[in-house]
Amino acid sequence: MAKQTQHHGRAWYVIHTYSGYEDNVARNMKQRIDSMDMQDHIFDVLVPKEKKIKIKAGKRVTIEERIYPGYVLVDMIVTDASWYVVRNTPNVTGFIGLGTTPTPIDPKEIETLKKRMGVDEPKYKMDVHAGDTVKIVDGPFKNFEGKIEGTDEAKGKVKVLVSIFGRDTPVELDFLQVRKS
């Protein structure tokens, strides 16, 4: 009789990978699930990512960023056979658990994570208000200081009074282009 790995039924587990190989591990694991007929034991492989807004070359771009670099989530029933498939996927370095027992993740955490991943338009909370002194960190006025005259949270824009040749000049910027001084 084969030794049984501790059984928790179907649950999500955290797999540790080499950083940067998360997508590669997820792709390989999905291929191994198919080729080794493990669909009834390994149900889903997930690389948690979220959308973030960055400024590149003065333009707002949305990028996808890994929430937990070096980790992949697997929805599975742990048996010796299913665990063998996961553990022996290239670039998997181990799993999160105590000793040799993988520890399942609380389903509430998975729900929270899926909600975070499901956000199509990233929301940014403006941390600047009218009257605040800010430093401009991007664009043609980079390194200038100014005072916030107004904010448009819906558009993510701020109006900054910048002293140009001794005169306060209102400049509209993306709020990601300024930092509180």
Summed up, what is this model?
The protein is built from three helices and 13 strands. With 181 residues, it is an alpha+beta fold.
Count all strands and give the number.
Answer: 13
Mean pLDDT: 86
State Rg: 24 Å
Taken in chain order, the helices and strands follow as EHEEEEHEEEHEEEEE
User: What helical percentage do the residues reach?
Assistant: 10-25%
Q: What is the 3D form?
A: elongated
Estimated share of beta-strand residues: 35-45%
Count of helical stretches: 3
Specify the biggest β-sheet. Answer: 5 strands, antiparallel
Distance between the termini: 68 Å
Structural class: alpha+beta
Topology readout:
Elements: E1 10-17, H1 22-35, E2 42-46, E3 49-56, E4 59-66, E5 71-77, H2 80-87, E6 92-95, E7 97-98, E8 101-102, H3 107-117, E9 133-136, E10 145-152, E11 157-164, E12 167-174, E13 178-180
Antiparallel strand pairs: 1-5, 1-6, 2-5, 3-4, 7-8, 9-10, 9-13, 10-11, 11-12
